[in-house]
Amino acid sequence: MTSSIREFASKKKPGDYYQRLAAEVEELNKEYHAFTTINASQKGKAGAGVPFSSKANICVKGFETTAGSKMLRGYVPPFNATVIERMLASGEYSFLGETNMDEFGFGTFGLNTEVPARNAFDKAYVAGGSSGGAAAATALLKYHVALAESTGGSIATPAALNGVVGFTPTYGAVSRYGLIDYANSLDKIGVISRSAADARTVFDLVRGADSYDTTCVVGKIRDEKKERFYVVKELLEAAEAPVKRPFEKLVSKLESMGRKVERISLGILAEAIEPYYIIAMAEASTNLAKYNGYKYGLQYGELYKRYDEFFTSARENFGTEAKRRIILGTFIRGESVRDRYYTKALVLRRMLIESMQKVLEKGFLLSPTIPILTPKISDASRLTPVQNYAMDLYTIPPNLGGFPHISFPYDYVNGMPVGAQLVAAQANDYSLLGFVDEWEKGFAYRFAGNVGDI
Ligand code: GLN
Q1: In this structure, are residues 144 and 39 in contact, taking their beta carbons and an 8 Å threshold?
Q2: What is the pLDDT of residues 195-243, one digit of tens each?
Q3: 355: in domain
Q4: Is the CB of 329 under 6 A from ligand 1?
Q5: Do residues 202 and 331 lie in contact, with contact meaning Cβ atoms separated by under 8 Å?
Q6: Would residue 318 count as lying in a domain?
């Protein structure tokens, strides 16, 4: 697959390239709602670099950054996140705008926000979440890369649903400074792009130690070639038949590429949803406590109100899913139940990491990215919270373990893309990118749009 970064650099851009691009993106956005902010100041800058976007939970100096929440409406960060600083300092990229997302990252289909993004292939379908805008924008724009974020699958899932590459690096490889936290022990900034080559270029630019984030500690990124792929039976069983069928074709294709695919039993991977949601909600509920309308969060100025009245009205600005997670997360951390839920979830997380590590020493883990075909917005909005959470079955294990993973398009069913997810051992990010690079030599991605073509 050609790298759109390299291709863009080699093209002679018309003087008004950005002016036209920003105008086209504004038009496109009326239909797809992929962006929450579009940077019009790029207009007229002919010598500028590859257009890049950032998910709306990554702080960009001078641009409204809402994390998809009404609570942060009007918040304009006075500083750049480290990843933004590094993209801009390179002089090779130009900031195009911020992309739509589920409020604070709470969601799988992109519907938990005021105006959801639409799927780039068909507007009646979900863009996926929580980085739905980033994935839809990547699928629609010819020259563009997206910085996105995953806590439990928010890069892989929307990338799969929009037919693009979604790369989530090893936990700690990329600084989280300037990221609006969802759950600190899980959050990772990664890349959504049209090729593995582009993901690698951006990853190499933004990763590495940062004195502002002491959890950013990963040393050398490795490229240990793995010939063996493991498919976990208990995970695949849970997929819908229309997902299993193309997946089996993928397995045969990998075998014809000379890879060994082995089916293994590893039931603990299918038990990861509960500990994930317990840990994620517990952490989220503490992170959201600062949005109380005093220093952070939409302010009413009704300071004459009683303490509890004031907070109750300030917190009305949270959406339904955010409120659910505050209530459940706060409950989970309560002294009388903490050991029953939170501590137990931590134990399960440790067990899961250890059992995954054993497999990942020998090869990759392979699965579909999501157990169902892309749902229509009308169908996805009818799912209960628990049905929604169950959709993260495949993306949660690598996210809980901080293992790098990548989703890549491998087939089209009824005209819509389907994605597969590959997981590697920690710090083995390059081996994933290397495999997808090879995959792209024999499989041509179909993109939903080519806006901004030159
Ligand atoms: N769907 C998962 C959740 O709602 C993951 C979201 C994410 O990775 N930000 O928690």
Answers
A1: no
A2: 999 999 999 999 999 999 999 987 888 888 888 999 999 999 999 999 9
A3: no
A4: no
A5: no
A6: yes
